[in-house]
Amino acid sequence: MAKATELMGIDNLGDHQGSNSNHRRAFARDVLSVEIEGPNRPQLTVVDLPGIVQSQTKDTTQEDVDMTVEITESYISQPRTICLAVISATNDYANQPILNKVRQFDPKGERTLGIITKPDRLPPGSDTENQFFRLAKNEDIFFELGWHVLKNRSFEEAEFSIQERNSSEMSYFRKSIFGTLPPAHVGVRSLVNRLSRLLFSHVQQALPRLQEELDEALEYNRKELSVMGEPRTSSEECKMFLTRLGLNFYEICKAAVNGHYEGQYFISEGKGSHIQRLALNRRLRAAIQLMNQNFAEEVRLNGHKYHIHGREENASSTKQVDTEPLDEEPSEDDEEVVSRKVAINHNPRPFTKIKRPQKLSRRKAVTWVNDVVIRARGRELLGNFNPLVIAELFWEQSSKWHLFAKAHIDEVSGVCQRFLESVLKDKTPLDKSLTKS
Q: How far is Cα 67 from Cα 49, in angstroms, rounded to an integer?
């Protein structure tokens, strides 16, 4: 035991653990396991947890106090654990924190058995003895598993053997009020049998859920193993692994480019994705098609340099059909209609940095065309115009098209890059050897 505690760090001084304090560690998170085997031994596993320390002393620090609570909670919070709430009869049970702790994790007391120790320290016939007697009868703090009473070795009985200790306990219960309790609820021998039966019954109840958890863990491990692939310890195995990995990667990319989404990689994606989130999903061709439509709509609405506003004049009349002046700028309502069309048809995010069309009234537009005609005069007769002026006007109107094309190509490239990164992340295991290579 001394060697074990030394290995667990309990006997080592604090400066051995990297601290300048000379305080001795009182507890450790390590578990000391002792197995006792024999033909008559019960099928039972008992975990002896440290008692919950209320405050620090010269022998225990605040770290030790917190550790006892942490260790206790880590065990009693497990739904397949039977909790033995041990309380001492030398202290009022209302002041012993373990009772509140077990009820915190087992409020109905379905897996908690109360243990009362040191009942021989109670004055016979006193109110305190009667209170603990009612507690042992499960009349005060109720646990479905009930209570059990044990008598510890006294100071004078410290050297007693197991047989002597059991005889002393039996002698006490024959004279005490606790002896009127059912024989299965007093004494260490009946406790062993009671715990064995409780454990067997508890395992029967927990077994179906345990099987489900094992199946889930097995399925998870199988998936992890399938991602890792076959063993690749030799160079030949590594080559075969990389070949299959590259072929799988190629097939997925080919299917995404061709729009064939029947494979498991495409079926396993989240259903119900909004159409505007296709670029974030695995269906690459559908995402590019949507972006192409958005690009075409953006060029149609905002690709021209000048937006000519105004209505045509009636050729048979000197008056204009429209009552507004020809050189009047478009109203705010017209601008709102144009911007609403852009917002409804697509997401203009990639093209926001490109200038919108410059608005011209019909009169200014006629002046612009007239200037281009004068600038483009060639060998034609007076009164005619150079037919190439149409191309020149078109070139100026489409002078921003290359900006839209570049923004569109950059966005498509980003989507393709995210798609490739997603495929690599999903289909390639995080193997350090592959990363290094």
A: 11
Do 9 and 124 belong to one domain? Answer: yes
For the chain, the domain total comes to 2
The HSE-up count of residue 125 (CA atoms within 13 Å, CB side) is: 0
Query: Is 347 within 8 Å of 294 (Cβ atoms)?
Result: yes
Averaged pLDDT, 295-324: 66
Structural domain span for residue 295: 275-421
- Read off the pLDDT of residues 353-393 as tens digits, 9 standing for 90 and up: 888 888 888 888 888 888 888 887 777 777 777 788 888 88
Helices 362-375, 389-397: crossing angle, 10 deg rounding: 130
Any alpha helices (H) in 176-258, and if so which ranges? 188-228, 235-258
Dist. CA 342–CA 302, nearest whole Å: 9
CATH number of the domain residue 48 falls in:
3.40.50.300
Domain match, 183 and 284 both? no
- Rounded distance between C-alpha atoms, residue 361 and residue 137, angstroms: 99
d(CA 349, CA 407): 10
What is the C-alpha separation between 245 and 430, in angstroms, rounded? 13
pLDDT band for 150, please (50, 70, 90 cuts): very high
- Neighbour-count burial for 36-45, b at 16+ CB within 10 Å, e otherwise: eeeeeeeeee
